[in-house]
Amino acid sequence: MIDVPYIKLGELCTVNQGLQIPISKRFKSEGDNRYFYITVQFLKESHNEKFYVENPPKSSICNEDDIIVVRTGSTGQILTGIKGCFHNNFFKVNYDEEKVVGKYLYYCLKSKEKQKEMKNRSGITTIPDLNHFMFLDMKIPLPGYSDQEGIVKILDSINSKIAINNKINQELEAMAKTLYDYWFVQFDFPDANGKPYKSYGGKMVYNQALKREIPEEWEVKELSEIAELKAGGDKPKLYTKEKTKENTVPIYSNGITNEGLYGYTSTAKISKESITISARGTIGYCVLRKTPFVPIIRLISVTPNNPNEVKFLFESIKNLVFENSGSVQQQLTVPQVSELKLVFPPNDIIKKYDSFTRSSIDTIEINKEQNQKLSELRDWLLPMLMNGQVTVAEAEEHLGMVAEDEETYKS
Hints:
Number of helices: 9
Strand content: 15-25%
Radius of gyration: 26 Å
């Protein structure tokens, strides 16, 4: 263990407050001397509209290697890798590059310990506000410069592996989606001669329920005819483990961020491959579940009667347009989802689609599990490295063993 000193941020850096720009002076298009305007809206997943600011003061401009901190709203959230002009809800951290490695400072401020401290320092008012003094009064562990660089290298390597896995998963999901569209939307699945069905004159018949043509011998079925649907139950208490003969399983929420809210329970477990549909919030968001899970109250689970149909149903459900119940709090219900109509092909075509996509599903699941383990390892290593409880050399040796275990597992 290394004795690491704690230094006040005020001894390492200063801060610049962001800029409040009236809506009348925001531009919707790029142009000379215009900068992307970074606001709290940018933090939302639904953000899709950009605004630009013309000739802002230099103090409110950040580059990709700068660190900016959210002062109000999502207080303490740390951002980097963004170029533009930042809003008054943010401030930029100007650090002394001779004393602290920028990426080390970024990782330190993102640690759970510092995130919690910033929220505590922001107060308990209706709108928490992390002021400059409270931020600069915080202390961080500051190992030697070379150790800071070593810590950054280790954490970057873990994040890089997570990013690679995510990219692989995105590409595999895109390939499965392309094949689905080709077979089940354009109806160019392989015919008896291996030719694209519709393009080579396959017979199409008009379906009254869907108001369009579908291939001959295909059916239209309600989702309840081909799968079992269940509404999720109330969320059990977190951090409670029930001692049972069965393995404990994760509790999943809507899957938008980390694919689930993890707790432990052995009741209401669904063991078969299934799909979950978000019934509240981002209505209709779907996740394919390969491992046992327990859906909580904001989820509807869909378990195919035939296991070969899970990937087909997953892509089919994602293509559906969901209408909420019309209540004050928008939500889906099991009866609504049960009545949704799907174009349903003969079983041999579904089997072919399953055989083409099965390895991709397995690879995606392995990558997700690996990313979960890597994230846990990173979050464990971060404070240990910064506090000197684990040396850079020890961490590198541990990561080497993890990599060997992964290769053994894959082979």
